[in-house]
Input
Amino acid sequence: MSPGTNGAAAATSAGARAGAKLLFGDQPGLRARLQTLRPLICPVDDVLEWVPERATVFDIGCGAGLLPGLLALRRHQAAICGVDASPHAIAIARALADRVGTSTERPPLEFNVTTSTDEWPSGPFGVVMMVDVLHHIPPSAHRRFVSAALARVAPGGRFVYKDMARRPVLHAVANRLHDLVVAREWIHYVDPHVIGALANEAGLIPLHASHHRRWWYAHDLLVFERREPAHETT
Ligand SMILES: C[S@@+](CC[C@H](N)C(=O)[O-])C[C@H]1O[C@@H](n2cnc3c(N)ncnc32)[C@H](O)[C@@H]1O
Output
């Protein structure tokens, strides 16, 4: 199925890069500046294509707010809410919300710090996104983390998941080194089939799966949809 069939606006690679520069190019601090480079190593454009217009969005592990910010530039979302474990990242995201949130045409942006799934907003949301977060979560918590996300997808809504791929092995090693240097973490790759099984358990059906490469980074993008309940005929 093509993402455009639901009227989602395509965000081209150049668009994501230009948008990132617009959002963060003049901001102080290394973390904010690095957001402008993120579309070069992460298929941000491919991820955002799966976010339909007018959907409410919950971005889990939103970081400095790059993806919500790019969605806000499209002006098509109903509302966007992000959570992240890092107070520093959320401070940058909130400053971003202040900058883009002054226009009445923009969707409301809200960002909160939390590491606990119990503190996530209950939703449900038209789109729940989890982009490059799960490899930072200990494997023993994967099921709970992903299931909590899936539980917040509204009927007819989507779970848009992207994470670093375990294959090719050289790419996986390069990305592991990246996270050792940048995040000082030994990351945990997740088999995409595990995400598929959890989505199936939660009553979502697969909509899309693709593999992407940017430089020496390899990515798995998975999209699932919760079917609308069938209407009873009388
Ligand atoms: C690689 S960044 C991705 C940020 C953003 N999703 C993006 O694509 O630009 C991973 C983010 O996950 C966040 N994170 C890690 N563990 C988390 C948790 N338990 N709850 C929420 N966020 C978490 C980190 O703080 C970090 O900002």
